[in-house]
Amino acid sequence: MRIDILTIFPEMFDGPFSHSIIKRAKEKDLVEIHLHNIRDYSTDKHRRVDNYPFGGGAGMVMMIDPILRCIEELKKKNEYDEVIFLTPDGKRFEQTAANKLSTMKNIILLCGHYKGIDERLREQVITREISIGDYVLSGGELAAAVVTDSIVRLLPGVLGDETSALSDSFQDGLLSPPVYTRPADYKGWKVPDILLSGHDRKIAEWRHEKAVERTQKRRPDLLK
Ligand code: ADE
To answer: What are the chain's domains?
Structure first.
C-alpha cells in the first residue's frame, strides 16, 4: 500500500513513523509512506499556502492552488482510491473505516490548518472526510498519523501474530476482554483460575463472556 500525506509540517511525522509497527512495515516494504510539503507547490515567492477568507472574519484559509498542484502531480504517477481530508467536521473515524482503507492500494491524506481549506477543494477533489473525534486539534497531522497507524497495522504481514489484529477491541463489535501475564500471583493479586486451566474452549468462552460484560458496562452503544 502507498500513503501520500500532504502537510505543511512534514517533520511532525518523524516520531510516529520511525518506531514500532509502522517502522517495521516500512522496512518490510508492506507500506510506502510519502510526505509532501504543500509549501513546495506554492508559486508564491514567500511559499504562501493560505490567505484571508472572502467575506472577512478571523483566521486564514488554505488556498486551492498549492494543494491541487501537489495532488495533480501525484495523480500523474499513481491512481488513488481516495483523497482524504482530515477535519473535525468529517465523519467520525471508526474501526470499520480503518478496515476498509487497509484494503486500498493508494490513498492521499490531506492535513488542514488554520480555518480550513477552500471549500471548492472539498467539493471537487476530496472523496472522504475524516474526523478522529469531537475535539479540535491544531492541524490534521496528528489525525493523519492516527489514521495511518490504524491502517498500517491491519496490512497483511505487518503484525507478527496474524490473529492479533482480529482480536482487537471493536473488530467483532466488542471491547477486548481483560488480559494477564506472569506472575500468576503478584503479592496476593491473582489471575483468574480459568486462564491457568489449559482448557482452550473454556478459556475462549470466558473471554467472550468478559468481552460482552465489559462492552455492556463501558460501551453499551456498541451492542445496539
Ligand atoms: N483537524 C483538527 N481537528 C481534527 C480532528 N478532530 N480530526 C481530524 N482532523 C482534525
So the answer is: 2-152 (3.40.1280.10), 169-223 (1.10.1270.20)
